[in-house]
């Protein structure tokens, strides 16, 4: 029997609870160097954005914000973490002492979870000292890049399914913890449920599932397996009918369950042809209400191709958890403004790098979606400068506070994010939900606020 | 300031430590149904294999085994997990009582971490009761599919780098926990180091890193930033030189650091052209030993394309953590044999499904690599049946015990896995390391043992 000593279990648990080392070595060396130079204490604004959407995609979906706020709250260095940093010489004693006291005390603003986004949308803003903000780069990007990639793929799938429920079942094809986050992100973007139990436990995502081929094979006959499943789970269950011969399995399934069998599942073969054949057979057997669930390497295109088939639900695995060709959202975290000097009241100045193919646009941003008279989004408006634009019925503000002085403000629920996503997607031009490749469905437009124009005349760094 | 109450922290930690819900709903419903039918207690053999390699790949790399053994040890249901299952009605009372007592008591055998694999290689075998084995499906596949996908990509990258060190730095482009596993898998497959601190803490992977553009931008001038970094980290550090103008930055870098500056980093632009230009400039400035590190969306092809450039190290991010186009290894977990009846001494019979495009091959497997007189691998030999083949100098056995009666046997270290990978790759035909697309570099060949032939004559299920 496997046993873990209580001590080891406690140490593992404590280590797992801290997110402080889920970061890159260079953030700590930058911290050390900036503590020496004094730049560590300069008020700074970091921004998360994506230079582009994945190839051919018309929009992206922001996801992970809720998880991120938990992860920032758990970002503190315990004795074990500090001992590791000392033992390996990652940073010096002064930096370790600073880290021992570290808690994030800054402000976070950003797009709500479930919101759609476009190239250069300022998805998240962190305002803190340089030291406090620079430490969070990797953690913030890991959470947002992963979850947004999954939600962006999931949203296309639920659109393609056109109201038929999608079931997330890709856990086995991704890292065991990424699986939980994937289930959450898929639900945010309209999936009905997941196979992942931890996602049910942690986030309340509805979970579903009945049986695999192994269950049929461990019994002496398929009939034995069906009877066992029906006895345990009732007639509303879903029987897997493609272990041996589908037509025979469907016949036996209805024979043992009766015409009120809940559903059958097809997991192989030509699903379009097979769904038609099975529907006809079920109807002939009187099982007119028995549903058909299909689950074999589906992506948004395969789902769309089954639109005319008598399919009642789609189970989506690999393609969901791998972002359907775009497993990361390619968001970056850039310093866009910082205090002109170390003092707490020093004015912010925009900063930007000028690397050839990776330019960034300095200055703190506001963002809103411009809406036309019919309620359709026409542009992602990004305003650079200190003041937000005047309130306007034809603009929907996109940025809201998420943390103030290191404390989370009211947290949106996953259900609220789901509803926001539904509304945000419905507001986009209809071509957003076409699967064909194209550019972002609305353009990103920059506006320049008064204050920034003044700063810009001074050469962007006064 | 963010504070988490000790209670909440303890609950989070306990929840994080259990891996029991990192599984699919259907595994628990299969458990419930098989407890009812009695099939739960049949001795069973499950096998992990991949039907194919990712498109165009010549070999795969097994990774995750070490992590998996820890995850199986932590697979037990605590009060919180059981309360969740009861509250949501996932399974009935009898099943919950069974789960409360669950510890894996079976045997696990398999390929060692770092070993190369091919289509249908029997990478892992779990022998246990059906109930004990079926519960582990998702966890086993999540760990092996993720880590093997990353290691398989990493191995191609280190081959392409031809001895120049590769640095893993993709944490920000994948789930925050997948990032840690990715760093581990990359190290296994020959990467020299990682940026991910948690991978250093948990697994002892060497960590490296110096600074980002934000560090330059938070200072008033690039010179200030370089001076701050040198003061904190010494002359052996790596200065990032592409924030504004590379030539000017290199000039300033050598001016402030002297000719014994450790390295400069290029993170944008045409790296081939830029590396040549910077090398010439460094040499002219007398900094002949200053190294050049390049880091911008590299994959194995980009690395190979830089072979002739004066580059000293490659930093690889996005393409590593996304498996360079193959983010999952597509391994499956199939029941291949089970007892003819529930008793503990009942003989095993092979089982296999017959789904149209996803057949499986029943029966317990042995595997070895056939080696020719020059020490080059010529085939992946899979023997179906109870007896291993006679020992033979021209075969290398691939399967070793990993757990017996639920207890891990001696665990290979990560360094041993690294060494095994180096040897296993060196043993393959040289074309394995060509980047061009092709089939598996050696064929998979089946042999049939005596006992199985007997069983097969009986119709595969006596």
UniProtKB/TrEMBL annotation, chains A, B:
Keyword Transferase in annotation: yes
One annotated Gene Ontology cellular component of this protein: cytosol
Reaction catalysis annotation: 5-phospho-alpha-D-ribose 1-diphosphate + nicotinate + ATP + H2O = nicotinate beta-D-ribonucleotide + ADP + phosphate + diphosphate
Region span, Disordered: 344-368
InterPro entries assigned to the protein according to its UniProt record, in alphabetical order: Aldolase_TIM (IPR013785), N/Namide_PRibTrfase (IPR041525), NAPRTase_N (IPR040727), Nic_PRibTrfase-Fam (IPR007229), Nic_PRibTrfase_pncB (IPR006405), Nicotinate_pribotase-like_C (IPR036068)
EC number annotated for this UniProt entry: 6.3.4.21
Nicotinate phosphoribosyltransferase N-terminal domain sequence ranges: 21-145
Compositional bias per record (Basic and acidic residues), positions renumbered to this chain: 351-360
GO molecular function: glycosyltransferase activity; nicotinate phosphoribosyltransferase activity
Keyword Glycosyltransferase found: yes
Family: Belongs to the NAPRTase family.
Function: Catalyzes the first step in the biosynthesis of NAD from nicotinic acid, the ATP-dependent synthesis of beta-nicotinate D-ribonucleotide from nicotinate and 5-phospho-D-ribose 1-phosphate.
Descriptive protein name: Nicotinate phosphoribosyltransferase
Organism field: Actinocrinis puniceicyclus
């Amino acid at each position: 029997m496997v046993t873990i000593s209580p001590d080891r279990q406690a140490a593992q648990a404590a280590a797992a609870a801290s997110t402080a080392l889920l970061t890159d070595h260079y953030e700590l060396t930058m911290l050390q160097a900036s503590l020496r130079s004094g730049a560590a204490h300069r008020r700074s604004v970091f921004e998360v954005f994506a230079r582009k959407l994945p190839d051919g995609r018309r929009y992206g979906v922001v996801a992970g914000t809720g998880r991120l706020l938990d992860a920032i709250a758990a970002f503190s260095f315990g004795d074990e973490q500090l001992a590791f940093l000392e033992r390996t010489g990652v940073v010096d004693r002064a930096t370790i002492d600073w880290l021992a006291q570290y808690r994030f005390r800054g402000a976070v603003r950003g797009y709500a979870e479930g919101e759609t986004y476009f190239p250069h949308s300022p998805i998240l803003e962190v305002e803190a000292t340089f030291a406090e903000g620079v430490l969070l780069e990797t953690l913030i990007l890991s959470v947002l890049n992963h979850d947004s990639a999954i939600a962006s793929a999931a949203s296309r799938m639920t659109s393609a399914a056109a109201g038929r429920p999608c079931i997330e079942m890709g856990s086995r094809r991704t890292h065991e913890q990424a699986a939980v986050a994937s289930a959450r992100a898929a639900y945010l973007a309209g999936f009905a449920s997941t196979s992942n139990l931890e996602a049910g436990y942690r986030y309340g995502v509805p979970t579903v599932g009945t049986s695999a081929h192994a269950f049929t094979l461990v019994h002496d006959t398929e009939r034995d397996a069906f009877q066992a499943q029906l006895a345990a789970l009732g007639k509303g269950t879903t029987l897997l009918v493609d272990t041996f011969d589908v037509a025979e399995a469907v016949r036996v399934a209805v024979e043992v369950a009766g015409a009120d069998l809940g559903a059958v599942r097809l997991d192989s073969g030509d699903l379009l042809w097979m769904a038609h054949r099975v529907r006809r057979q079920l109807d002939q057997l009187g099982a007119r209400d028995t549903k058909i669930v299909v689950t074999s390497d589906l992506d948004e295109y395969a789902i769309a191709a089954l639109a005319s088939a008598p399919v009642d639900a789609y189970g989506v695995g690999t393609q969901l958890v791998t972002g359907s060709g775009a497993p990361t959202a390619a968001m970056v975290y850039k310093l866009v403004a910082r205090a002109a000097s170390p003092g707490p009241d020093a004015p912010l100045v925009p900063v930007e790098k000028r690397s050839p193919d990776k330019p960034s646009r300095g200055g703190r941003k506001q963002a809103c979606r411009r809406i036309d008279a019919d309620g359709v989004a026409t542009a992602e408006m990004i305003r650079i400068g200190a003041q937000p634009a005047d309130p306007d019925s034809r603009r929907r503000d996109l940025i809201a506070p998420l943390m103030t002085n290191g404390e989370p403000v009211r947290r949106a629920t996953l259900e609220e994010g789901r509803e926001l996503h539904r509304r945000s997607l419905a507001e986009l031009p209809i071509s957003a939900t076409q699967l064909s490749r194209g550019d972002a469905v609305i353009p990103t437009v920059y506006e320049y606020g008064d204050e920034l124009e003044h700063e810009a005349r001074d050469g962007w760094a006064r």
